[in-house]
Design goal:
58% helix; 6 strands; alpha+beta; six-stranded antiparallel β-sheet; 6 helices; elongated
């Protein structure tokens, strides 16, 4: 099944608005013979999905629960990585101590220089590993929206929806629609249910509708 990400297009006379593939408007080796889709039909479907998902107060708790699960899994992975890094650092420390003992016994100049160079490389590795540890620990701190913030976004979106001006509807689409993918036989709308700063793959919601059903809905 061929599918392409579409963008809005508009005829000069303004009578017909549609979504068409970017590949049709620029030189490309990727063939695209998918039919254009009426923009009003698509946006009506998009607004319907926003109303069902974004305006659903239950989604606030669902999103927060997704964040909670994500943090638990992420922290497990980071803890495992940190343990591995600490073991590597400990191993390097042991090697450095052993090499220090060898130096203390007295060596020829050439051997001593070789030992010192090896110790310098180990020290560099140890510093790099410690910096890695700091970066991993920083990753534990994840920005998570509060329930109040999500409810505030919900309230604002509802206010925009009540206005129902073309500008407000377009803003809603811009805020919550990540992309629209048009396949040969269906339309796929990918929403993101949280403000841009907090977005992750698990905050997305995918809705699909066949071309046939989309057309039927708008008769």
């Amino acid at each position: 099944m061929r599918s392409h990400i579409y963008r809005q297009s508009k005829k000069i006379n303004g009578k017909s608005r549609s979504y068409r593939c970017n590949n049709q408007s620029r030189r490309t080796n990727i063939a695209c013979d998918n039919r254009e889709v009426n923009r009003d039909y698509v946006e009506a479907f998009v607004i319907e999905q926003i109303e069902r998902s974004v305006f659903n107060k239950r989604m606030v708790n669902i999103i927060l629960e997704r964040f909670k699960k994500y943090i638990i899994e992420k922290n497990k992975e980071i803890s495992k990585t940190l343990k591995n890094l600490e073991n590597q650092i400990q191993g390097i420390t042991v090697k450095l101590n052993n090499l220090s003992d060898v130096l203390a016994d007295g060596l020829e100049r050439k051997q001593r220089q070789m030992i010192l160079e090896k110790m310098e490389k180990l020290e560099d590795e140890k510093i790099a590993l410690k910096e890695y540890v700091l970066r991993e620990k920083a990753n534990i701190e994840l920005d998570v929206p509060t329930k109040e913030e999500l409810l505030c976004c919900l309230k604002r979106a509802q206010e925009m929806f009540r206005e129902r001006t073309l500008e407000e509807m377009q803003q809603l689409i811009d805020l919550y629609v990540e992309k629209i993918i048009v396949h040969e036989d269906e339309i796929e709308v990918i929403l993101n249910l949280v403000p841009l700063f907090y977005r992750h793959s698990f905050t997305r919601q995918v809705s699909k509708i066949s071309r046939k059903d989309l057309k039927e809905k708008n008769r």
